[in-house]
Amino acid sequence: MRKLLYVFIVVLIFTNCKQEEATVPTGLVTEKAMVVSAREEASKIGTEIIKKGGNAFDAMVATELSLAVAYPFAGNLGGGGFMVYRKNNGEVGALDYREKAPLAAHKDMYLDSLGNVIPKMSTSGGTASGVPGTVAGVMAVHEKFGKLPLNDIMEPIIALAKKGVVVTKKQAKRLKGTRNRFIEVNGESTKFGQLFKEGDTIKYPELAKTLEIIMTEGKDGFYKGEVAQKLATYIQEHGGLITEEDMAKYEAKWRDPIVFDYKELKIISMSPPSSGGVTMNQIFKMMEPYDVAKFGHNSAQTVHLFTEASRRAYADRNYYLGDPDFVDIPYDMLLNDKYLKDRMSNFSFDKATLSSEVSHGDVQIYESMETTHYSIVDNEGNAVSATTTLNGGYGSKLYIEELGFFMNNEMDDFSSKPGVSNMFGLIGAEANSIAPEKRMLSSMSPTIVEKDDKLYMVVGTPGGSTIITAVAQTILDVYEFNLSMQDAVNAPRFHHQWLPDQIIFEPDGFSSDLIEGLKSKGYIINEKRTPIIGKVDAIRVLSNGHLEGGADKRGDDSAFGF
Ligand code: GLY
């Protein structure tokens, strides 16, 4: 009898706890520290900073600023982002260095006299830029947590800007594809009006000079004096609103991250003005009652359940979320267990729910796909997850020649006219309307996961509105389906965001049987649009404490460590 009880208890434990590491790691494995980012140069410099005695926060400053040099497509001084951290003592926190609307911005600023949205005004050139937050962000991180002097962190980056960065094949293609837009916005003589080929080296002496000023003067070197004056003048010459006063007033903000449990995991992600944490919390909680591991990786049941949870979560996201300094967000309702259970009460594995049957049906989003994420774990066990962006690839395409960087087109992440689609087919809600000094809603979801109170994963991705689903699927792929970190990053992904009421699948990753099966349940599949979904850079802590990197093969992404 006692033996039987023992067997019962063992079976119970094994059925309720997921087994650790059924799979061998397939990504880079290191013993102590790792940086995974969109470019080898940035991952290397971040790792070197840790080797020199810096911590994950010093490496964050280094990686973020290196990406501004090595990956101007999304890395930036002229944009903004979010960072979530977990210190080795378990303390967690988050930093919001999202761009803000200029003081002169107003709700109708992108509308003509008839109230119609003016094409390109929120996406291209000086009118599209919000007040940049990146430099304030890295300086706030350095001031609060940094160990190394700023000079030690920034000198290698300034050296890289002077020496130059070699153009990759993917970068050459992007530069060529955007060249006409660079010329249209900045004129014929703009630096990126040249045709760069794979293997060319691009040097950034002007950017090196801007970085030198920041290294010497800190945050004020960017937000006051010569740099702020040149930035404001260039923006205004191109029709934009940013003034020196806007620059001087910008502050990054420490915020409480969104923290929730999913089965044995504790998930820590970004709070508003990013929608990432809230939306992911809703998706995971709606899925939690199901034995997802049994359904199988990317099986019809998994796609069906994930899609229905996403549909409901995105409907709330688009309606309720905005800058918490301006909008009251009903967290108590949105994250309440009973509310989320009720949201799934009409879910059935037999058929698709129609988005028109899920409330707040007038609102949809379609954000730009171009952003970048990096993940860091240091040799003391501190972890940093950060996502940074210019919004579109090369942002507004406005390149401030004298300062050596692109400006963001983040104003397009506001809803220019609540309830009406803009040029991307993007429709937003009142909670995300434009106001002076307000931060625009984001999907960026830098995330850290704990298991058994220990660091388990650091994860994030670019991908606009698909960020949230890509991060959630990567966590599920490792935890529920025992994929290695690298395999989870490589795994094909799918996406549904309530409206438009359709699923998109990455190319070649899903069988026609699965797709036909979903169609027979009433799902609309967008077979014309099969973009890549996310470019995830992640780190998993293995049971022996070593680290496995997942650097997305969809880009030039690279893991480095020791
Ligand atoms: N600009 C993309 C995002 O913030 O989600």
Automatic annotation (TrEMBL):
Domain of life assignment: Bacteria
Key word DNA-binding present: no
Entry PTM: Cleaved by autocatalysis into a large and a small subunit.
Catalytic residues identified in the record: 371 (nucleophile)
Reactions that this protein is recorded to catalyse: glutathione + H2O = L-cysteinylglycine + L-glutamate; an S-substituted glutathione + H2O = an S-substituted L-cysteinylglycine + L-glutamate; an N-terminal (5-L-glutamyl)-[peptide] + an alpha-amino acid = 5-L-glutamyl amino acid + an N-terminal L-alpha-aminoacyl-[peptide]
Pfam families, per database record: G_glu_transpept (PF01019)
Gene Ontology biological-process entries: glutathione biosynthetic process; glutathione catabolic process
Gene Ontology terms, MF aspect: glutathione hydrolase activity; leukotriene C4 gamma-glutamyl transferase activity
Keywords, comma-separated and alphabetical: Acyltransferase, Glutathione biosynthesis, Hydrolase, Transferase, Zymogen
Assigned EC number: 2.3.2.2, 3.4.19.13
UniProt pathway annotation: Sulfur metabolism; glutathione metabolism
Tagged with keyword Iron: no
Residues that, per the record, bind L-glutamate: 98, 389-391, 413, 442-443, 464
Subunit details: This enzyme consists of two polypeptide chains, which are synthesized in precursor form from a single polypeptide.
Family, per entry: Belongs to the gamma-glutamyltransferase family.
Protein name stated in the entry: Glutathione hydrolase proenzyme
Species in which this protein is naturally found: Formosa sediminum
